[in-house]
Amino acid sequence: MSRGAIIALSIFGVFILLCLAIAGWGFGVYNRLVAYDQNVKQSWGQVENQYQRRYDLIPNLVATVKGYAKHEADVFEKVADARSSVGKLTITPQVLDNPEAFKRFQQAQDGLSNALSRLLAVTENYPDLKANQNFLALQAQLEGTENRIAVERMRFNQAVQGYNTLVLTMPAGIIASMTGYHQRPYFEAVEGASAAPKVQF
After folding, report:
1. Of 120, 118, 113, which is closest to residue 139 (Cα–Cα)?
2. In angstroms, rounded to a whole number, what is the distance separating the alpha carbons of residues 164 and 85?
3. pLDDT, tens digit (0-9, with 9 covering 90-100), for 114-145
4. Are 176 and 167 in contact (CB under 8 A)?
5. Can you tell me whether residue 126 is helix, strand or coil?
6. Is the pTM of this model over 0.85?
7. What fold is seen in the domain 35-179?
8. What is the residue extent of each domain of the chain?
9. What number of CA atoms fall less than 13 Å from residue 47's CA on the CB side?
């Protein structure tokens, strides 16, 4: 075999090894993107579970308060409207890929949080209601749910931060853009509020 052929064969071998190394790196980055994306989706599922828990709790809470505060119709109407707007949202996994849909979801949930805060503020005027065991149990469940919502939103934001960091850094960002991975939205604090609604009596 001539010296030229040996050099050509060596160059070809180096080229093949380089291609294999780049492909291996690309597959590794893609697998990390998939894992981070799945982590975001799992965290999102936990957020949804806690919001659903609150959504299911509201009718019992409202019915109990109505028994004592029948003339607070405006407050009950606001809670019903806010709950209805949450119920009308069609939530699919694609909401994470659509910042506008994600924003609508957050606004509807924040509206329900505000309506619940107003409902709970009304109960201050009814000492008998605050002593009712059923109400106390519902209040404790709501308080626990609001705390869980805050924790799951924080975990979701942490998962999104890890994912977005991977998507935006180079050279992983090249693989992300080639395979359709892009930034995900964060939950943002409600304007004028830094914590879950207070449910203290």
Report:
1. 120
2. 30
3. 999 888 888 888 888 878 888 888 888 989 99
4. yes
5. coil
6. no
7. de novo design (two linked rop proteins) (1.20.1440)
8. 35-179
9. 26
